[in-house]
Amino acid sequence: MxxxxxxxxxxxxxxxxxxxxxxxxxxxRFVSFVHGRRHYEIAARRCGLPKDWQDKTRRxxxx
Length: 63
Description:
Layout: E1 20-24, E2 29-34, E3 37-43, H1 51-60
Antiparallel strand pairs: 1-2, 2-3
């Protein structure tokens, strides 16, 4: 039985665990984090969220 816990994602500045929605450049996806753990992903091409929100998230919350 594997007892290791997955490592939590750290914020870009290395402070607190990530929380909220981010744009992941490497995968071209919007990724939701909860307490540093990946919760779910949305492919950028299939994202139905408003275009202005997508653009702002790409600029301000890219990881």
